[in-house]
Amino acid sequence: MPKMAKRLIGQKYLAKVAQAELDWASQARDIRAGKKKSMLSLLEERGYVNAVAGGRDNLDKLMTNKRIGAYVGIDPTAPSLHVGHLLPFMVLFWMYVHGFHTISLVGGATAKIGDPTGRTTSRQAQPSAVRKANLHAMHYQVKALWRKVESYGEKHGYKWEWAWRRGIDNNTTWMEKLSVMELLKVLGPGIRLGTMLSRDTVKNKMENGDGMSFAEFTYPVLQAWDWWYMYNTKQPAIQLQIGGSDQYGNIVAGIDAIKYITKNHSNPELRQEKEDPLMTPYGLTVPLLTTSSGEKFGKSAGNAIWLDKEMTSSFDLYGFFLRSADADVERYLKLFTFLPMETIRSVMEEHTQNPSKRTAQHLLASELLELVHGKSAAEEAAQQHSRFSGNRSKSTTSTSPTLSSPTSETTPTSVTNPDINRSLNPHAPPTNWENAPPPNITLPRSLVYGMTFGRILYHAGLVSSYSEGNRLIQKGGVYVGSAPAQIGHQRDEVSFTPAKWGDPAATEQFVIDGQLLILRVGKWKVKVIKIVDDDEGGMERLRKGAERDYDEARKPVKVRKWKGGNDMPGEPVRSTKRASGESPVSGFEATHREGGRDELKSLRGTENKDVPQRPFRASTDSTDESARIRMHASDRPVTIRKQMSEWSGSDGSKGWRSVD
Ligand SMILES: Nc1ncnc2c1ncn2[C@@H]1O[C@H](COP(=O)(O)OP(=O)(O)OP(=O)(O)O)[C@@H](O)[C@H]1O
Ligand SMILES: N[C@@H](Cc1ccc(O)cc1)C(=O)O
Description:
42% of the residues lie in helices and 13% in strands. Strand 2 (69-74), helix 4 (83-97) and strand 3 form a beta-alpha-beta unit. Strands 1-6-5-2-3-4 form a 6-stranded mixed β-sheet, with helices on both faces. The protein has a 5-stranded mixed β-sheet with strand order 7-11-10-8-9. A 3-stranded antiparallel β-sheet has the order 12-15-14. It has 5 domains: 1-36; 43-114 and 167-290, Rossmann fold; 314-395, Tyrosyl-Transfer RNA Synthetase (Orthogonal Bundle), CATH 1.10.240.10; 415-532, Structural Genomics Hypothetical 15.5 Kd Protein In mrcA-pckA Intergenic Region, Chain A, CATH 3.10.290; 534-660, no CATH class. The radius of gyration is 27 Å and the shape is globular. The chain is of the alpha/beta class. Bound molecules: adenosine-5'-triphosphate and tyrosine (TYR). Tyrosine is lined by residues 73-75, 105, 107, 110, 115, 171, 223, 226, 247, 250. Residues 73-75, 105, 107, 110, 115, 171, 223, 226, 247, 250 line the site of tyrosine (TYR). It catalyses: tRNA(Tyr) + L-tyrosine + ATP = L-tyrosyl-tRNA(Tyr) + AMP + diphosphate + H(+). Residues 379-439, 561-660 are annotated as: Disordered. Its EC number is 6.1.1.1. One of its GO terms (molecular function) is RNA binding. This is Tyrosine--tRNA ligase.
């Protein structure tokens, strides 16, 4: 019987594959007959194509005849994608909703070297923990982004089909296993030094910059190997690489590498005796998104507009696109949205009648927000803008949009972090891909080391109380990432094991490089916790990060008290006493007077973002049975008082704990 079931599934699968092939062939006939636009023509029409490596018409024909695989690579040298990355990714999104197979490659291995393209100075080596934190954060961001693409696509009539395929890969997976000997044997003879030395990046860096290391010099070879690996192992082969126009040289190096390997490989199964047009690799570059002065938006230029909500709020991201110049907005609508061309044309007509209404810019900002942060964030940002920026945004016509710094006038007042919503309102909807919290957070060492996972979950904003954290762990719903003892210290892959309830000392084993802990609750709640010292430097960064949570902190927090075991729920206790220095977070307290978990309530969910500092002050007013903690805007330094309550454990032990 089970065998039968297996066979039935197999046949069903084969039937689906056959149907998908038939559909593709029929679509190809329509394209050839001029009844339908080809994929490449659609991309050209919307302005995505800067250059095609390998011949435009050949690529057009290939994409019409074959459901090929395509990829975009990004090095996780920052914790988030930025707006510039969206351009090559938009091509991938369009291809996906038209049935192509796509891979988003996060370059865990290539980030260790750093792409020297377009630079005159070498990149600063990143500490391993920072690199891993960025890698994990980016992995989850890309994953969530793809889910949003699906629902955004559906809104525009691209309904998910069985044959669509998308994947996220990390090149560490294969680079770790690649030996120097294999690389030199398989690809080495095909790399000509003359060609490499004549590349602009090499010449420029050697003649006008700080010279070039061997590692930097070999970067294009590693990128080429990635492509060869995916060309060779994925089904269908990855035959197209997409990147910004600055990547053209690296992409051509990849095409040359694949052609060399397939011609010369010692394994006859991998060798193509004759060049097969259906297996030829191609490259497609997109124009660079630049400031009005022509500078590329990106990490190196330090002007990136981040897609992570914690780094650029939905409000600011909306504002960035709202400030697009009239001369640019049509182009951006084609590049950053799935809106049909006819809709864009008619919106532009309406816009031209009364440009001061910024109709086109509002549409652009809303659509982009929906794609990147989800529908509800888009609606909320649009409302906030109509409330806060009204006339100011109308008068701005800058071609070089810059982010508004959060001022009391422009900072949104509502709470957008779903975890915070949930802790304030237990009936808030559960976390899903759309409302998942941003993955990055920074915590002081004393809130991680020697803490049970239940507590750390709370400090990281993943649960609303210690006891909720403990319950989740006991149910097996919490995972801890990349435990060095279990999977080897050097591994960068995202890998999780169930977190165990109990021994606080054991937590330390999971801290990577002394600076990083990764926790996951369910599928979508992930926190990449960067651990900083409890000294002033670390706290200063945390305090800066608290800016974003300013409005949340102003809301009164309902305080609950429990008696019984340290972390377990129980009956409310009768009395509360004020105490300091005896909190379970004593390391934190020692340097910060009476700060503790209550302070973290306002700090959690934040990252060391570089936002102007707005000092805040916390005050506590309490009665015997209840306590409330409020944070106020103030130009005075932080002063935090904390409520402590006495507890007694079932084993007769007693102590003080801060009030939840
Ligand atoms: N402003 C931009 N416009 C178009 N494409 C971009 C832009 N910024 C990055 N890209 C593309 O995104 C892909 C990944 O880029 P990468 O990770 O190197 O980001 P980056 O911001 O360019 O980094 P860096 O500035 O440090 O080189 C590349 O194909 C790159 O060309
Ligand atoms: N070199 C690319 C990123 C990348 C990494 C690996 C690849 O296989 C492809 C692209 C960049 O810095 O923009």
